[in-house]
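step 3/5: co-fold with alpha-D-galactopyranose
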Amino acid sequence: MRSLLRVGLVVSLLLVMVPFALAADGLALTPPMGWNSWNKFACNVSEKLIQGAADALVASGMKDAGYQYVVIDDCWQVKRDAAGRIVADPERFPSGIKALAKSIHDKGLKFGIYSDAGTMTCAKRPGSKGHEAQDAKTYAEWGVDYLKYDWCNTDGQDTRDAYAKMGQALRASGRPIVFSICEWGNTKPWIWAQGIGQLWRATGDIQDCWDCSRNWGGMGVVHIIDLMADLYPYSGPGHWNDPDMLEVGNGGLTLVENRAHFSFWALFAAPLMAGNDVQAMKPEIRDILMNREAIAVDQDSLGMQGRKVSDSSARQVWVKPLADGSRAVILFNRGSEEAPIAVAWEDIGLYPKTKARVRDLWKKADVGAFSGRFEAKVEPHGVVMVRITPQF
Ligand code: GLA
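step 4/5: write tokens
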């Protein structure tokens, strides 16, 4: 009996430890959440803007809902000094980055910054090539908690080698720094980046539109959804596919499309980096970004990326299994007319006779108990997102 108990104990310990061993550094065990300056402000960054965004995250309740990393994207840096140390724009960041990081920390938030694996960033600021260890040390001294590392101006460089070099430098810095790999999915980072960084961009740059595409590689929300569809096996605690930062609230999407965008990022277990002006956010946008039941789907401890289980004439069903045995399901209408869409229990791994509770995550209401299937009318470009909990 005793030895049986002992075996039981060892097995349970293993079950608890294995996911942590896989995410050895313990960073980003759930998808990182926060705010990034790029989508709305591009190069127009300053310490005033970053402070304002951080204050708004706190005041709006977004911090309490889980948004914790405040990340300055490109254009904070202007040159290197005589010792090769990176220098922040003295006009836009007069107090310096270390002081800025401290004040972000004082608000109970974490602080992130941006660089590039090449000679210059995408906005032609100094890149980190040849300065990896020095930059990682500087970031650690400044109190940086998150580095987004881009891929412009990298002629002749190997992606895996370049990202591994900075990944090692960050680890050697002695400070836990989440490493966000940004080579746009060009060399399939989902195959090589686990263990190097905690998240990797899987696609080109998101644009503030539903289905546009730019000749330089930028793309709207639906194209990103399609590119993410087959990547579900590669995501998990400490290693996330990143479909890019959110465009929710930036003006190019209808409310229905904004909700669909956010729902899919949650179903994908995507990093949720708000990309809007959080200081001037309409209540209906804040309600989307702060839908705690959708956020709970994103942050679910199982860390599985959702996948598509049925697709017919622009009507799709997607599912994400959750740690408590329930399923998050998206009924997605890509067409231009309202349409009824149904999810069949067998498509989401449930026995047809099973009775399951269905909760609508946007209405924030229980819809009832159903067996076999659940059907709802879905607006064009919209979703009905539900959580289906089997009752045994
Ligand atoms: C690339 C990245 C964007 C942003 C810009 C900054 O395009 O993919 O997310 O960081 O560079 O220049």
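step 5/5: annotate
The first helix runs from residue 2 to 22.
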